[in-house]
Amino acid sequence: MNVKIDTKEKFSVITPVEPEIAANMTEELRHILEQQQNSVPAHLVLNMQHVQNLDSTAADMIAGLQQKFYEHNLSFVVCELQEPVEKMLDERELLEVMNSTPTESEAWDIVQMEEIERELLGDDDMEE
Q1: What is the rounded average pLDDT of the residues 74-80?
Q2: pLDDT value at 123 more than 80
Q3: Cα torsion for 35, 110, 83, 26, to the nearest 10°?
Q4: What is the pTM of this model?
Q5: Considering just the CA atoms, what is the radius of gyration of the chain in Å?
Q6: Interior CA angle at 108 toward 127 and 85, to 5°?
Q7: Which residues contact 40 (CB under 8 A, 6 or more apart)?
């Protein structure tokens, strides 16, 4: 599976350059995304601008992995969903549980806001 990885100061952007993410590509994509969780920076933006078709297995994996990131206080934002993919995610009721934005720039903003929120909440925990 071809992906482009762009590392920023606080997060990385992973952009699959495939028009379709089929079921047989799910494990490879999972591996790529899980590796990010153990790298620096660990926060992730998944840019789906090239993906026109997403297998339901891959969709379930992305939604589940996104939740695991948040359980570990890490951001994971999906952006630039194409209409057929967004429709499928909505029909599977995954869109409502996923953190997604229309643009990559908005995804960056979310990651940075969540980082500030974690820092503030961390400071509150220290004061108690």
Answers
A1: 97
A2: no
A3: 10
A4: 0.91
A5: 15
A6: 125
A7: none
